Amino acid sequence: MKNLPSDRRNFEDEALKNTDICSMLDPFKLEVMRQLDAELPPLLEKFLSDIDDNWQPSGLLPESSSERFVQDLKEIQELALDMSYELWITLIGDTITEEALPTYEAWVINAEGIDQLGKNNWSKWVRGWSAEENRHGDVLNRYLYLSGVVNMVEVEITTQHLINDGFDTGMGHDPYKNFIYTSFQELATNVSHRRTATLAKKAGNHSLAKICGLVAADEMRHYNAYSSFMDLIFGMDPNGAMTSFNDMMRRGITMPAHLLRESRMPQGEAFTHFSECAQAIGVYTAYDYIDIYNRLLKVWQIDAITGLNDEAERARDQLMKRPKLIEQLAQRTEKPSCEHDFKWVNSRLKRNQR
Predict the structure, then answer these.
(1) How far apart are CA 178 and CA 204, in angstroms?
(2) Which of 208, 157, 163, 164 is nearest to 342 (CA)?
(3) What's the confidence (pLDDT) of residue 352?
(4) 224 and 299 in contact (C-beta within 8 Å)?
């Protein structure tokens, strides 16, 4: 691998003289991305599953042409009534979040160093990751439809609003911040789907538990990919990576569905209530946020990185102290309850449980 210049400022000055980089946020980071592109093929093979052998949504749901279809459908709808209102709201919110994939692909593909025309390995990763993620919304959405307790029109309205509203994670086009965010979020979604699988299994719904478990496994594999990308970046540009990491965690990781809304409601209102339900049943809490933060500190060995400049050293110091401060805040916060009457479920579930 080509050695990078040790003086970032000299590199940037030279790049400004010789290259048209009007769109670049940081030419040094762009050079890191260019050099790492050559290192990606083994990682793509490791972290992307073969499409022909991968699980597909139709393989996890009743086959409509089967003689057992009506019987299988009846079983799904009977089991639906055994699951709590809070669990259904959490499952629906997770599904809608997965369905907003076009937004997520757009901001990943627009990071500096990723070729939107598909000519480098970074873009191959984004396409492969998006193709795998696309199955999540598909299988969960179809399950909601078959359950008989979900108001699909309201769910679809919320999904359309979420894609239409978009969201700002605070990353801009910075590839480092992009991969820090996705490392965090992929692990967060793993936690959410894994816990939902556990609760579905406890309710006797083994088919839904299997679906959520497979989605969770994908999310863990994707987390391993993005965290591996950042590990490589820390090795090549520890100062830039450290300050970017601190930047993201100082502003806080914005949840991808933070603008969630129901029909004729303001942006974000439904997310607040959805989050309350998820916390109330322990699917995703403030302590999970802290655990993920600490895991990233450990996996990237933040406390052991050497040769940092003064700015990066300050950033590391702030990064290491922040989880404790967040934990102190979480300890003073009461556990929320799930009281909102969501439009996402129909009267059949509400009559049965509310």
Answers:
(1) 39
(2) 157
(3) 59
(4) no
C-beta neighbour count of 110 within 10 angstroms: 15
Cβ burial of 67 (10 Å; 0-12, 13-18, 19+) is exposed
Residues 6+ apart with CB under 8 A from 203: 79, 82, 83, 84, 87
- A 10 A CB-CB count for 324 gives 11
Q: Tell how many helices (H) and how many strands (E) occur in the chain.
A: 15, 0
List active site positions: 55, 98, 133, 136, 186, 189, 218-219, 222
Tokens linked to 153: 């029109």
Residue type, 318: Q
- Give me the residue label for tokens 């769109």: 23
The one-character DSSP state at 306 is -
* Dihedral sign of CA atoms 327, 291, 134, 89 in order: negative
> Which ranges of the chain have pLDDT less than 50?
19-23
Q: From residue 123, give the alpha-carbon distance in Å to each of 34, 112, 134, 136, 218.
A: 12, 11, 16, 21, 19
**CATH annotation of 8-353:** 1.10.620.20
Measured CA to CA, the distance from residue 73 to residue 67 in angstroms comes to 11
Half-sphere exposure of 18 (CA within 13 A, CB side): 7
Residue boundaries of the structural domains of the chain: 8-353
Residues 6+ apart with CB under 8 A from 71: none
82 in Cβ contact with 205 (< 8 Å): yes
pLDDT for 167: 82
Q: SS3 for 308?
A: coil
Task: Kindly state the tokens that stand for 176.
Answer: 């480092």
Assess contact for 33 and 115: CB atoms under 8 A: no
Q: Which two tokens stand for residue 74?
A: 């009846």
d(CA 257, CA 254): 8
Residue 18: is it exposed, middle or buried by C-beta count within 10 angstroms (0-12/13-18/19+)?
Answer: exposed
Residue type, 180: I
C-alpha distances in Å from residue 153, one per residue of 141, 145, 190: 12, 10, 27
Residue pLDDT, tens place only, 108-138: 999 999 988 878 999 999 999 999 999 999 9
